[in-house]
Structure formats: structure tokens, C-alpha cells
Amino acid sequence: xxxxxxxxxxxxxxxxxxxxxxxxxxxxxxxxxxxxxxxxxxxxxxxxxxxxxxxxxxxxxxxxxxxxxxxxxxxxxxxxxxxxxxxxxxxxxxxxxxxxxxxxxxxxxxxxxxxxxxxxxxxxxxxxxxxxxxxxxxxxxxxxxxxxxxxxxxxxxxxxxxxxxxxxxxxxxxxxxxxxxxxxxxxxxxxxxxxxxxxxxxxxxxxxxxxxxxxxxxxxxxxxxxxxxxxxxxxxxxxxxxxxxxxxxxxxxxxx
Length: 256
Description:
By secondary structure, the protein is mostly helical. It has 10 helices and 2 strands; from the N terminus they run ααααββαααααα. It has a two-stranded antiparallel sheet with strand order 1-2.
């Protein structure tokens, strides 16, 4: 059965050689504080760090940009509302709407932080094979249910997509031609509903099969991880970077 692709998980770069557990910890240390940043210069620094990590991982720029395009398509909607709905000092008008300085700053901040976080996650987590990600999370004492959710999502998302394609083919074989009318909307609603029902039915059958095979709520893996000096140095570098970004004002006063 086909499996989902992992375009970033295979490589010989420095980041690919880092212990998956260290990459998980580093991703958490970098992304959570980034989400809490309140200044544009700090967000730009984290965005630059994300680009550096992508370059260090030697990932395909085209594939990375395709992922960023999806994220920024959603962020674009924020630019349609935040600059006009945020209270503050007006800097211009577009028809009946007033653009505020605070709204533009907030929109820019969200854009920078979102792209920085996505780049960091692609470089650090996207380069981990899924079969290694679950055991690495378990070794870091992440709750078992969360690890199971990750593994099953990866395992069965393609199965659900295959079921969706089968149902679409059946609809086409019956002469269904989608248009913008009530019949089309009703048909797609039935499609989504049946997909949920079939997914639930499969989940129950899989759970029953696991119970029959003695599943006790824990996965056992043959994967083993070793941590080297390079791994610890990488982790320390990430810690130093995030501390430096959050203390940029102090650093400027000392060196400027």
C-alpha cells in the first residue's frame, strides 16, 4: 500500500544527523518563545534563523516555498481585516475603511512569526522520519496517547484519502457532475458524512484487531537513539540564540 511521502526526512546534512530527541527539544525551545515575541526586529531575527536552519538541512527551496505558500495564503486573509479593525493611529483610508499603524504592525508581526515558526519546524521536525518521531516522543515522556495519535494519523490518513477517491469514482460512474447548485452541495455533504462513518467503522475494526493481539496501550519500538557531543552543542546553540533574541535590548546597550 502506498505511504505518504517524506520529502525532507532523507538527507546527509548536519541536522539530519542530530538525534531526533534533540531536534524535538530544540524545536520546542525555538518555536514557543517565537510565538510570544512582541517586536518586529526580534521576529526578523527568528525568521533569519529559520532560513539558516533550512539551509543547514540542505532542503529543496522549491518544496519549502510551496509549504510556505499554503501558510501565507491563510495569513493573507488577516491582512484583509487586521489593519482596518485594530484600534490605533490612522495612517490612511481605503474607501470607508481606515488603516491604523498598530494594525499594520500587528499584521507584519503575525506574518514574520508564522513564517519563522514554519521554517523552524520544517528544518527540525520535517527532517525526522515518522517511524522515529513516535519513539523519540515516547523517550521524552510525551503522553502515550499523543504519540499514538501521531502514529495513527500518519498511518491512516492515506487510507482515508484512498476511500475518498473510491467514493468520488463511484459518484463519477453514476454521472455526477459538480456545479453550483443545491444538489451538488447536498451530494458533497453526503460524501463527507459517509467518509466520517467509514472512518469510524474502520477505527473500531482496527481497535478490535489490536485488542485481539494483546495491545496494552503502549507501542514498542526497535529504534534506538544515541546522543553525541555535536547534538548537545546544537541544543546549546539553539538555547543561546533564543536567549539572545529575547535580550536584544540588553545586547544593544552593551555593544552599541
